[in-house]
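Can't paste images in this forum, so I'm doing it all in text. The chain is below; anyone willing to post the predicted structure tokens underneath?
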Amino acid sequence: MGSDDGTEPTRQDTERPYHSKRPHRKSRAGCRNCKTRKVKCDEARPSCRACTLRKEKCNYPATTPPSVSASPKSSRASPALSGRSSRHDTPVEEIKRSDQSMILLTEPTYTPPNTDVTDMKLLWFYTLKTYESFNTRAKQAPLIDDILQVKIIQIAFTTPFLMDTILGISAQHMQHLNVPVPTSKAIAHRASAFEGYRKAIQEANPDTYPALLCASLLLCAVSTAQFREEDARPLYILDWMLVWRGIGLIIELVKPEILLSSGLEALFFRPPIDLEISALHIPPNLLFMVTSLKEGDEDYPNVGVYYNTLKYLGALYRELQNGFSGILDLGIITFYTFLPKQFIDLARRKRPAALVIVAHHLCFVRLTNGPWWMEGIADREIDNVCNLLDSGDPTRPPTEWTPFLRVPRAVSRLQTREEIARVLLDDRTWMPPIVGGDAADDERTKEISLVDDSGREVSLVDGNGNELAYRGEFLYSLPSREKQPPRFNVWLNEEDANKTTWMDEEGVGDEYLRLVRASSEVGSGSSGLGGSSSSDTP
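Text version of the structure:
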């Protein structure tokens, strides 16, 4: 057919490739800064995301209506604000972080080399099912689902090591469900994922920072494959703890500002912890184990480290008293991300007191209704820890650690969650309270937010000096008494914030890289994340 003006198309016109326009919605309600820069504005009030990250004052045209009005009938704001500290008792303006009414799927800009039918099936299965295992509120938290199901995939199309990570975890999930997947394919993806991840850490290219953030989380699940190997060594849990701690190391490498600008921060939400109240819930026998260490004991210099770690464990005991919940599950899963780096080192050196604490956390792992990739870990590792410290043979004399292993040994023989909870709480009559049912649990789970390693909620200050805080999937502006300079403090306590580099951490960063490097050499005789830890024995 000819053109509208009656002329015939030229050869150049017919050979020109056709590119469809990307679907989008036009908006004229953005702030002045974004209009000047000709960038998309999320129209958040009082400061949009772009101005917040650039630390600029955000101004809107006078006729621009607010994107989300502050309203007393907002059902999402009130639960998060009730019963909190006084600074949250003032009215706040709810700022919706993203429009969930439409998800735009764009054509990938990169196709992984050597992609075959199996890889396509693995990618399909991840977007259909596997992604749900990284969200304790799957299909109830659209923002997190969108990150896991869409945004991560978009990043992976331009970052091969993240794509290998996704395909590797999908292969493990299918194998877990007895769906045939070539073992060589699963191993190859896992090895490539760790190798690419290691190189990206060492190169520290800002272009790969979003992929590093995603992979640091997903590799915690990928590395659980070692638990299920027939020749897996005992106490692999000590290496796995370091993999979890690696999330914080990557965030420190990437810098909190990049985490926020990437739009991935919701993946790293954790339950807030009041450590002082949690200390009141530490089991008496564990408290005695630590306080009985006297000057002259080899572990006496570590009393403070053990006590601080027990506070995080106390938070789980405190939450368990409220019954089984999504908050409890998330606290159990993210437990190792909170722990002091000195404790990780003590556990990997197999110090008895540290192993006793690890064994008690594993009791909670048995309790959790957690993701498929955590199944069976506690069953195996509780026995390994107990047998290292005490033979369990009634014909042999007990060791000094036998009394502190009573609960883990008892839990390892139980089957139901209720039975395990009664042993943990030392209450034979305990029953999970029913207060509001699933609806109440869902509301409480929305309280998770960005918190630092001290369990305190992260506070952000935008370019206008307004204090910001997350509540579930929303960002709130909290009126400040005094205007503050812009600041970010994510996943860091005050001590860690003074570190000069992410590697300057009692050797934890170097050890993490060593494990990642070894894991990329699967099949070459290297121990990797399933290999030997420190050779120290109690």
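The chain has 24 helices and four strands. The two ends are 84 Å apart (CA to CA).
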